[in-house]
Write a structure and sequence with these properties.
mainly alpha; two-stranded antiparallel ribbon; 10 helices; 2 strands; about 5% strand; nucleus; repeat; CTNNBL1; CTNNBL1_N; Beta-catenin-like protein 1 N-terminal domain-containing protein
Length: about 210
């Protein structure tokens, strides 16, 4: 994969404010969470209605992705050196699933070049990481929302050659494995959705080498 440029840094928050934020979230109940959704990432509450907070979430993912790549390049024959970072990366990808609840921030994901990073990770040496990305894309695309939000995401996926990357990862999956089977479904569903929603389905066919599913 090509080098990943991380544009930005994470802002730390104290553990006391984190604890208070968690308690408030619990006390307010389900209806309050729906009105003002938030998630907890690395013991920090991420307000999904606040752009700067979502930005930190995305930049945290990019930071971990860049770190993972650097460690794998530095220690190609010593997996123990990047084992923990692989786990961090899987968790960071999982944390991005909350963006499906706020598709209005898909444009921010695109502006921060995170879609390109996600597509690169579909080709990650660790197949399970590519599968997590496929599952994430499935969750983000298979939602009922304003068409313009999905259009922004789909266009960015096409620019990053997502169909080609998805197909490459699909070929590594074993349908006899339960987790792989889930990712096979996610991958094919994403490809079908891209074909249905893109303005130029022929580009998808070109990227996939005119493969038939």
């Amino acid at each position: 994969m090509s080098a990943i440029d991380v544009n930005g840094s994470l802002q730390s928050q104290g553990s006391n404010s984190t604890s208070q934020g968690s308690n408030v979230a619990e006390e307010n109940g389900e209806s309050q969470r729906l009105d003002h959704p938030s998630v907890i990432v690395e013991d920090v509450v991420v307000d999904l209605q606040d752009e700067s907070s979502v930005r930190r979430l995305i930049l945290n993912f990019k930071k971990i992705a860049a770190k993972n790549q650097e460690l794998r390049i530095k220690y190609p024959d010593d997996p123990i050196q990047f084992l923990d970072c692989d786990i961090e990366l899987i968790m960071a990808i999982r944390d991005l699933q909350c963006l499906s609840d706020v598709p209005q921030f898909y444009a921010l994901l695109v502006r921060l070049n995170a879609v390109s990073v996600l597509c690169q990770l579909l080709l990650h040496p660790k197949c399970s990481i590519g599968s997590r990305v496929a599952d994430l894309l499935f969750k983000m695309i298979e939602i009922e929302t304003e068409p313009q939000y999905l259009t922004i995401l789909i266009d960015a996926l096409m620019d990053a050659q997502a169909p080609k990357c998805l197909l490459a990862n699909l070929k590594r999956l074993n349908e006899n494995n339960r987790e792989d089977a889930i990712s096979v479904y996610s991958t094919i569903s994403v490809l079908v959705s891209i074909i249905e929603k893109t303005t130029n389905a022929a580009d998808v066919a070109v990227q996939c080498g005119y493969v038939q599913w």
